[in-house]
Amino acid sequence: MWDLDVSSSQAKLSSSATLEGKGNPKFTAGRWNPHHNCTQMATANDTTIRGWDVRTMQQVYCIDNAHGQLVRELDFNPNKQYYLVSCGDDCNVKFWDVRNSTAPVLTLSEHSHWVWSVRYNHFHDQLVLTSSSDSRVILHNMVSISSEPFGHLIDEDDDSEEDEENKKEKPREPEKDGVIGTYEEHEDSVYAAEWSTADPWLFASLSYDGRLVINRVPKAVKYKILL
């Protein structure tokens, strides 16, 4: 951990942690937890995911054998503080509740090669973006484990004369998880996919051949989330 002091031209080492094990294990990925006052972060080494309290650099949770092969990337749900997503060389994307990490909450196997990147949408956590060495970017709808699995309460739109009891609000029928879209504009491994910080419906992907592609969430999906 480094302290970037604006009054100094050099970064200062504030704290550190060392992995113990055979073969000098190395960190392969890391991600700040935006919750808990940003006092926690998650790291990956080989097939293991660990959570750390950065104030003491002590381990707070450990998910052994999270993936069958190397864990490539991690991301935290921006709206649900205990939910974490990971991806790896076993072609899988896994969603975890770190309070009970004996098994993933849900697993996706839509890619056919290593999954290099996974990202939650910053505002609408049912939208999850993944990219892979299979040259594809996939936009997923993970509404069942999102912060709004049943959508919003809506009023019945009926102008006929009815009893007041029949005009109560009722929940919208829950959406189902699935693939919103598969984007195949790349011709090589897609190493990164990121959501725009300015526009929640805009995302970009970058592949090994230097191609940058920008796409939008389909309007039908956007309006279904908003309305």
Quickly list its features.
227 residues, four-stranded antiparallel beta sheet, globular
Question: What can you see in these coordinates?
Answer:
It is a single chain. The radius of gyration is 20 Å and the shape is globular. About 5% of the residues have low confidence. Strand 9 and strand 10 form a beta hairpin. It is mostly beta strands. The strands form six sheets. It has a four-stranded antiparallel beta sheet with strand order 3-4-5-6, with no helix packed on it. The relative contact order is 0.11. The chain contains one helix and 19 strands. The chain starts with a strand and ends with a helix. Helices cover 4% and strands 40% of the residues.
- In percent, how helical is the residue content? under 10%
Strand neighbour order, sheet with most strands: 3-4-5-6
Low-pLDDT ranges: 153-163
- Secondary structural class: mainly beta
Give the percentage of residues in beta strands: 35-45%
What integer value in Å does the Rg equal? Answer: 20 Å
Number of distinct helices: 1
Calculate the mean pLDDT score and round it.
88
Order of helices and strands: EEEEEEEEEEEEEEEEEEEH
Number of strands: 19
Most strands sheet: 4 strands, antiparallel
Q: Give the overall shape.
A: globular
Distance between the termini: 43 Å
